[in-house]
C-alpha cells in the first residue's frame, strides 16, 4: 500500500502518538508523518479531528481515525497480517482491552501531575507507584503483557516509559527501585526496532518537559 | 450455542446505566444468564475477587472467567455470540463505533452526572456547558440516521443508553434543561427510537423507582449545602 495513503498527525513527545508509530512499524506499514505544533494546530488536524482537536490522528485513504488505542485496534484489523497486536481468543482480547483502558485512565494523569508539580506530590507519587505495581502484577513472569509475544497492552504502555526519566528527576523517585520487573520489561521492549525507533530518548523528553514548564509558567 | 444459566453470570445493580449496557447486549443475543445483585455499600467477596482493580459493577463472568468495564464486556459478548452483530464488520465503521462509544463515556456521562450531583455552582455550570457541547457533537453525528449503528442498534447506541434514559430522569430532578427536543431534535428522535426498541424496552429498569432513588440522592446532596 502506498505511503501517501497513510498519514499520521503526531506530536513527537506524545506517548499516544508513539503507540500508533509502534503499531504501524510492527505491521510494516509505510506512512507520512506530519508534526503538529500545539501552539498552532493545523487546519488538517482541526478538519480530521473536530471533536477533540488532538493528535494522534491516522488518516487512511482520506478517512480519519482518532484516539490512540482506537487507532491501534484499527491498524490491527485493517492490516490483518501478522504480527497480530490483539489476541484472537475473545477472552484474552477482552483482558487486553481492559488493561489498555486501565492504562488510559491512570498512567498519563499520574505522570503529568508529577512532572508539572501539580497537586499533593506525595499523594501523586504514591498513586503512580501503586499504578506501576498493579501493572507489574499483571505482567507477572511473562516476557510481555501479551505473553510470549509483544502485543496491544505492551504497545499501550511502553511509550510512557520514555517519560520515566522525567518523572524520576522531577519527582525524586527511582522506578528501578520500586518496580525492577517493569524496568526489565522496558529493556526487553526497547530491543524491538519498532519501539526503539518510536520512543524519543528520555533526555529529549526531559528537555521538552523543562521547556514546557518554563513556557507555561509551571513550577 | 446453548448456554447454561450457570455458565453466564452478571454481577450488577438494578438502575446502573453501565450494567444496563451489558443486559441490552445479552438480550440482543438471546443469551440467558444469572443476575447477581450487588449491594454497593457492602460489596460481595465475589465482586472483590472478580474485579480487584476497580471493585465496580458490571462484572461479566463466562465459564468462571471474569470481565470488567461495560464496553469491554459488550465487545466480548459480540465476539462470542455471533447472531445480531453489535459492531459492524468493516474496520473503519468499527473504529467510528468505538470512537463514539468512548466519546459518550469520556465527555457526556461524567459531565451530565456532575451537572446534577455537584453542589459547587461554578463546577456545576462548567459541567452543564460540557454536557451541552457533548450532546451537540452527538446531535451532529446522528443526523437523520435511525440509530448510530444504522438501521439496527450498535455499540454507540448501547453506550448512549445513559443519554436516552438516564439524563432525562436526572435533569428533571434538578430542574435542568440539558437534553431537550428543542435543543437537540435529531438526538431526541434517536432517544425515542432507542428506548422503544423491542429489546431495549424489556431491559431498561422501571423509571419510577430510579427517579425516587436519584431524587433522594439529590435532596441529600443539596440539603447538606
Automatic annotation (TrEMBL), chain A:
The keyword Transferase applies. One of its GO terms (molecular function) is glutathione transferase activity. It is found in: Cytoplasm, Cytosol. Its EC number is 2.5.1.18. Residues 89-208 form the GST C-terminal domain. It comes from the Eukaryota. Keywords: Cytoplasm, Transferase. It holds the Pfam family GST_C_2. One of its GO terms (cellular component) is cytosol. GO terms for biological process: glutathione metabolic process. Residues 4-83 form the GST N-terminal domain. InterPro entries: Glutathione-S-Trfase_C-like, Glutathione-S-Trfase_C_sf, Glutathione_S-Trfase, Glutathione_S-Trfase_N, GST_C_Tau, Omega/Tau-like, Thioredoxin-like_sf. It catalyses: RX + glutathione = an S-substituted glutathione + a halide anion + H(+). Is involved in the conjugation of reduced glutathione to a wide number of exogenous and endogenous hydrophobic electrophiles. Belongs to the GST superfamily. This is Glutathione S-transferase. It comes from Sphenostylis stenocarpa. The lineage of its organism: Eukaryota, Viridiplantae, Streptophyta, Embryophyta, Tracheophyta.
UniProtKB/TrEMBL annotation, chain B:
GO terms for cellular component: cytoplasm. Coiled coil: none annotated. Its EC number is 2.5.1.18. It is an enzyme of class 2 (transferase). Residues 90-213 form the GST C-terminal domain. Gene3D superfamilies: 1.20.1050.10, Glutaredoxin (3.40.30.10). It holds the Pfam family GST_N. It catalyses: RX + glutathione = an S-substituted glutathione + a halide anion + H(+). GO terms for biological process: glutathione metabolic process. PANTHER family: GLUTATHIONE S-TRANSFERASE, GST, SUPERFAMILY, GST DOMAIN CONTAINING, GLUTATHIONE S-TRANSFERASE-RELATED. This is glutathione transferase.
Amino acid at each position: 500500500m502506498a505511503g501517501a495513503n497513510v498519514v499520521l498527525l503526531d506530536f513527537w513527545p506524545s506517548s499516544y502518538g508513539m503507540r500508533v508509530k509502534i503499531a504501524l512499524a510492527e505491521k510494516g506499514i509505510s506512512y507520512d508523518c506530519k508534526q503538529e505544533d500545539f501552539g498552532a494546530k493545523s487546519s488538517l488536524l482541526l478538519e480530521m479531528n473536530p471533536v477533540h482537536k488532538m493528535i494522534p490522528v491516522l488518516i487512511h485513504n482520506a478517512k480519519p481515525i482518532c484516539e490512540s488505542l482506537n487507532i491501534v485496534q484499527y491498524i490491527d484489523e485493517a492490516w490483518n497480517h501478522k504480527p497480530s497486536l490483539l489476541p484472537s481468543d475473545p477472552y484474552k482480547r477482552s483482558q487486553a482491552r481492559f488493561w489498555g483502558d486501565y492504562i488510559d485512565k491512570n498512567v498519563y494523569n499520574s505522570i503529568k501531575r508529577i512532572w508539572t508539580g501539580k497537586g499533593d506530590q506525595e499523594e501523586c507519587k504514591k498513586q503512580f507507584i501503586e499504578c506501576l505495581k498493579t501493572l507489574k502484577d499483571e505482567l507477572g513472569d511473562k516476557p510481555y503483557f501479551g505473553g510470549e509475544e509483544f502485543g496491544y497492552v505492551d504497545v499501550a504502555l511502553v511509550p510512557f516509559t520514555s517519560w520515566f526519566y522525567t518523572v524520576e528527576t522531577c519527582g525524586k523517585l527511582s522506578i528501578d527501585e520500586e518496580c525492577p520487573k517493569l524496568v526489565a520489561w522496558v529493556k526487553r521492549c526497547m530491543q524491538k526496532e519498532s519501539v526503539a525507533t518510536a520512543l524519543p530518548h528520555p533526555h529529549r523528553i526531559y528537555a521538552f518537559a523543562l521547556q514546557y514548564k518554563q513556557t507555561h509558567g509551571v513550577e | 450455542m446453548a448456554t447454561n444459566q450457570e455458565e453466564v453470570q452478571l454481577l450488577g445493580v438494578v438502575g446502573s446505566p453501565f450494567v444496563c449496557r451489558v443486559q441490552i447486549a445479552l438480550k440482543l443475543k438471546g443469551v440467558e444468564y444469572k443476575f447477581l445483585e450487588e449491594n454497593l455499600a457492602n460489596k460481595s467477596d465475589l465482586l472483590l475477587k472478580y474485579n480487584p482493580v476497580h471493585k465496580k459493577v458490571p462484572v461479566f463472568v463466562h465459564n468462571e472467567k471474569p470481565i470488567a468495564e461495560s464496553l469491554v464486556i459488550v465487545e466480548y459478548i459480540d465476539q462470542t455470540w455471533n447472531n445480531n452483530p453489535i459492531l459492524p464488520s468493516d474496520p473503519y465503521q468499527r473504529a467510528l463505533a468505538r470512537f463514539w462509544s468512548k466519546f459518550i463515556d469520556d465527555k457526556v456521562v461524567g459531565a451530565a452526572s456532575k451537572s446534577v450531583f455537584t453542589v459547587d455552582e461554578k463546577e456545576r455550570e462548567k459541567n452543564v456547558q460540557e454536557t451541552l457541547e457533548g450532546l451537540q457533537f452527538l446531535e451532529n453525528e446522528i443526523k437523520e440516521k435511525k440509530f448510530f449503528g444504522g438501521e439496527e442498534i450498535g455499540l454507540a447506541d448501547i453506550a448512549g443508553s445513559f443519554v436516552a434514559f438516564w439524563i432525562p430522569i436526572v435533569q428533571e430532578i434538578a430542574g435542568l434543561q440539558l437534553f431537550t427536543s428543542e435543543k437537540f431534535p435529531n438526538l431526541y428522535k434517536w432517544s425515542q427510537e432507542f428506548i422503544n426498541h423491542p429489546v431495549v424496552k424489556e431491559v431498561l429498569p422501571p423509571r419510577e423507582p430510579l427517579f425516587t432513588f436519584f431524587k433522594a440522592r439529590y435532596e441529600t446532596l443539596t440539603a447538606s449545602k
